[in-house]
Amino acid sequence: MRKQVRISLIGAGYVGLTTAVGFSKKGFKTILMDIDKEKVERINSGESPIYEPGLREMLKELRREGNIEATTNLDYAVSESEITFICVPTPSRRNGDTDLRYIEDSSKAIGKALRLKEHYHVVAVKSTVPPETTERVVIPNLEEGSGKKAGPGFGVCMNPEFLREGSALEDFLNPDRIVIGELDPRSGETLAFLYRGFAAPVLRTSLKVAEMIKYASNSFLAMKITYANEIGNICKKLGIDAYEVMKGVGLDSRISPHFLRAGIGFGGSCFPKDVLALVSKAEKLGYNASLLKEVINVNSRQPYRMIDLLKKRIGSLKGKRIAVLGLAFKPETDDVRESPALRIVSELIRQGAGVVAYDPKAMFNFRKAFPKIGYAESAKEALKGADACLVVTEWREFRDLTDDDFSAMRGSVIIEGRRALDPKKVDGFEGVCW
What we know:
By secondary structure, the protein is α/β, with parallel strands linked by helices. It folds into 3 domains: 6-205, NAD(P)-binding Rossmann-like Domain (Rossmann fold, 3-Layer(aba) Sandwich); 215-301, Orthogonal Bundle (N-(1-d-carboxylethyl)-l-norvaline Dehydrogenase, domain 2), CATH 1.10.1040.10; 304-431, NAD(P)-binding Rossmann-like Domain (Rossmann fold), CATH 3.40.50. It is 43% helix and 13% strand. The protein contains 17 helices and 14 strands. The chain has helices at residues 14-25, 37-44, 55-65, 74-79, 101-114, 133-146, 168-173, 185-194, 207-238, 242-250, 271-284, 290-301, 304-314, 340-350, 363-369, 379-383, 403-406; strands at 6-10, 29-33, 68-71, 83-86, 122-125, 155-158, 178-182, 202-205, 321-325, 354-358, 374-375, 388-391, 413-416, 430-431. The protein has an 8-stranded mixed beta sheet with strand order 3-2-1-4-5-6-7-8, sandwiched between helices. The chain is globular, with a radius of gyration of 23 Å.
């Protein structure tokens, strides 16, 4: 294989765009394909369609160097590359199953594009898909469209991503591990070539195992967060600080301090849907994944603890003005998918409260779900005249808020869901789990 391998990626969401920029930074020519013409035009102008720290600046640099381009033409993307990554969405259906329609569509289209190629080509699934999907869905579609046999005709890999929104680019460039599920050694060797310059252990395994590693990892982290929240709920009743408790727990090297921050639950595009998908897959296999089901149940209840605490402090919410600080599911992202703020704001509205919200990056996306609530240009503006404040996302700028800022409120009730405020600067706030 020649040194300068060209890469194409189907889907320009968080995973596709970050992966394209990351590989381009490593010196590979990349072509990013998406059906959204506006998104493609923004990328080609050097503008990132999503907020991710450092992504916009690096994309501009790489566009100037000519190392990355975007297109709406899938045939062009495949024909001008040697390796194609599938990075399309895999959302949840209402019953918890994974919606594979984008995987179906993209694998069929890639198969047709491969029919015209004479040279060996590897298709790598990077989208999160249930175990057996690559074998039972992707490969049959590729074979039917191309008229070739997987293995001798083209390579297939499953290469799960382990990117955290808010630090996705850093996670890609400095991973803690690289997992390559391979149909055969040639497929795996071809993909492993891309990762030669990464300082991380590479695990070569089967397609099915690679798919399961992704689900098992995300489900474990979701379970760890939920465990911290359950302990936090008990700590709240005992009148002790869950963060002090978890500091002691996290010092155990077998556990580590990561993902032990008690609060109002996890959200985002990965943990909720991946836990649901694994539960659904287990049920199809005849197994009742009761532990994972309870992770989902506890997490769905956790945001409402903010509402319960609020009502204990101010009574009926009808007609009250509530400031909500933070709408993204975590800081350093504009993603509001499955954000606890969605449940919290919905319940505030249901109980008759008026909501004024502020988030440094996520208000545009949140407004799509709640166009009629108030939106402020700053945290200080949101606090003016509020009867109470709920802090939902731990943005760094909230740590700079002081008692003077909160003095603009009409009331004095502040409920903390993420340990964002600095107790040295703000007095009298109450935490969900402390």
